[in-house]
Every structure is written in C-alpha cells, then in structure tokens.
Amino acid sequence: MILDGKAVSEKRLEILKERIEESGLYPRLATVIVGADPASQMYVRMKHRACERVGIGSIGIELPEDASTERVLEAVNRLNNDPDINGILIQLPLPPQVDTTRVIEAVAPDKDVDGFHPCSLGRLLAGNPVFAPCTPQGIMTILEEYKIPIRGKRAVVVGRSIDVGRPMAALLLNADATVTICHSKTENLAEEMRRADILVSAVGKARFVGPEMVKEGATVIDVGINYDEQGKLCGDVDFDAVKDRAGAITPVPGGVGPMTIATLMENTFRAAKLRTCNGTAR
Ligand code: NDP
C-alpha cells in the first residue's frame, strides 16, 4: 500500500479550512527567514500559500544573510509581543553566525507552532504535548488516516535530530509503540531496523534503506529529502527495491513532505484557539 501523504494533506487542509471558517477566528502566522537560500525561500513561499488556502493570515519577515543573532532575536521579540500574531516559524537552517538555539528558545512557547522550543519538546516527552514538531506529527496523521496499528508494535526511528528523530520517537511512544532510536553510532543497524513493524528513516542519505533492512510487511516511512547522483529528488529509502517487501510505504515526493505543511497550518489554528481559551483573544 502506498501511503499518499499528498492526498491526506489535501483532505486535512480542506477540513481545517472549514474549521477555521466556523470558528470565526483569523489565525496569523509569521515566518522569519534569514538570507536568500533558494530552498528555504521555496519552503516559506509554500507555507504562505497554504496559509492563504485555509484562511490563515501570514506575514513574512526577511532578514539579510549577514544578520546577527541580536537582530534575529529582536525580530522574534517583536513578533512575541504582537497580539495579532499566533504562530512564529523560524525557517531553518539559519546562517552560521546566528545562534540557532538562542533564536529557537526566544520564541514564545504559546506561539511555537514549529514545536522546537524546549518547552514544547519537554511537554511532548512528558506525554502532554501542545505543539509537536510538524514533520513527525504529520507522520502520525498519515498512520492514523491509514489506520496503521501502533499500540504494542515495534517502531524503529533512524535519526535523532530535534526536528524529526527525537520527537518522532516520543510521539510513537506516546501512542504505545515500543520504540528504538538508531543513529550513526548504532551497532548492527540493519538488524535493529529489521525488527521494526514501523520503520521511520530520517537520515538524509539517498536510497540508504534497502530491502535487507526491512521486515516483510513493515510500514516504512521515508522522511528523507535527498538528491541522487543524477540530481533526482529521492528519499532515504530505495523505494523500488523496498516497496514489494513493505506492507505500506510513503513515496518521495508525495509522502511525508506535504504533511509537514498541513500540520503547520493545524498547529497555527491550535495556537489561535488556545489564545482564545486563555481569554486573550481580541
Ligand atoms: P539531521 O542531519 O539533523 O539528522 C540525521 C540523523 O541521521 C542523525 O541523527 C544521524 O546520526 C543519523 N545518521 C546519519 N548517518 C547515519 C548512518 N549511516 N546510520 C544511521 N544513522 C545515521 O537531519 P534531519 O533529521 O533534520 O533530516 C533528516 C532527513 O529528513 C533529511 O533528508 C531532511 O532533508 C529530511 N527532512 C524532511 C522533512 C520533510 O518535511 N519531509 C522535514 C525535515 C527533514 P547522528 O545523530 O549520530 O549524527
């Protein structure tokens, strides 16, 4: 079975659009981009387009490539204090002179729609998330939509980054999977991976996962966005070699990617609703 993230994201965006309309709220997202990296600019444009589609207002803050940490912090603080802004998204990666940790930690936790603030990650780990990072939360939505059983299943997450691997493991654990996290120092990696009923690869290496790493019938989630030697977009998983062995698999493109943006929209609406609950809505 091909897990069609594009279709799931379309469906979720339509539902979200209706919910936002019914709510009478006008959520607003601010994006912050530093420099002119074409890929980052493209992602930010896609996010603004998604906002427009579902009825979320959006503003974009663009800072020059050589902006200092202080300058970025100043922009974040202004957005923190702006009552019209519900969600703040810092487009990563930031240029090397900017202290990414300080910037992420400066975002007000109630506007942390990307879910990278230690407060958000701590709540996620405590089993009580408010904003989970969009990519792993989007993967949970795919699993849910396709009714892939999670409780009691053995999940293996390859990669331990803050944006994908770690929160993915926490979300699967919260959903009662038995979770293993693998990384570049893991011994007998293929053996660990072969034990997985649900295998999530967030490594960032083209066609890294071959059939010998996949248990027959496993659900394979490919987070990777890579380019092969021919410059062709591909995931971490050798799709053609693995698809007949897997029970279900996400393609690249059209799998995890579209879910990331849909989840960002959902998190932004959630931030707007939470603000209303706290009695601070205009
Ligand atoms: P990072 O580079 O932050 O993390 C990669 C992880 O893979 C690290 O934990 C690293 O281990 C591990 N790793 C590297 N090599 C190996 C190896 N040989 N064996 C086992 N583990 C290994 O990347 P991200 O988590 O941010 O992203 C991963 C991929 O997902 C990238 O391709 C990225 O573009 C994509 N991505 C896609 C998104 C989407 O929306 N579809 C969103 C975010 C990311 P160690 O910690 O030991 O170094």
From TrEMBL:
E.C. no: 1.5.1.5, 3.5.4.9
Pfam families: THF_DHG_CYH, THF_DHG_CYH_C
Keywords: Amino-acid biosynthesis, Histidine biosynthesis, Hydrolase, Methionine biosynthesis, Multifunctional enzyme, NADP, One-carbon metabolism, Oxidoreductase, Purine biosynthesis
Gene3D superfamilies linked: Leucine Dehydrogenase, chain A, domain 1, NAD(P)-binding Rossmann-like Domain
Biological or metabolic pathway of the protein: One-carbon metabolism; tetrahydrofolate interconversion
Record domain Tetrahydrofolate dehydrogenase/cyclohydrolase catalytic: where: 3-114
InterPro entries, alphabetized: Aminoacid_DH-like_N_sf, NAD(P)-bd_dom_sf, THF_DH/CycHdrlase, THF_DH/CycHdrlase_cat_dom, THF_DH/CycHdrlase_CS, THF_DH/CycHdrlase_NAD-bd_dom
Domain (Tetrahydrofolate dehydrogenase/cyclohydrolase NAD(P)-binding) ranges: 133-274
Reactions the enzyme catalyzes: (6R)-5,10-methenyltetrahydrofolate + H2O = (6R)-10-formyltetrahydrofolate + H(+); (6R)-5,10-methylene-5,6,7,8-tetrahydrofolate + NADP(+) = (6R)-5,10-methenyltetrahydrofolate + NADPH
Keyword rRNA-binding: no
GO molecular function: methenyltetrahydrofolate cyclohydrolase activity; methylenetetrahydrofolate dehydrogenase (NADP+) activity
Binding site for NADP(+): 159-161, 225
Family to which the UniProt record says this protein belongs: Belongs to the tetrahydrofolate dehydrogenase/cyclohydrolase family.
NCBIfam families: PRK10792.1 (NF008058), PRK14178.1 (NF010775), PRK14186.1 (NF010783)
Job of this protein: Catalyzes the oxidation of 5,10-methylenetetrahydrofolate to 5,10-methenyltetrahydrofolate and then the hydrolysis of 5,10-methenyltetrahydrofolate to 10-formyltetrahydrofolate.
Subunit structure: Homodimer.
Full protein name: Bifunctional protein FolD
Gene: folD
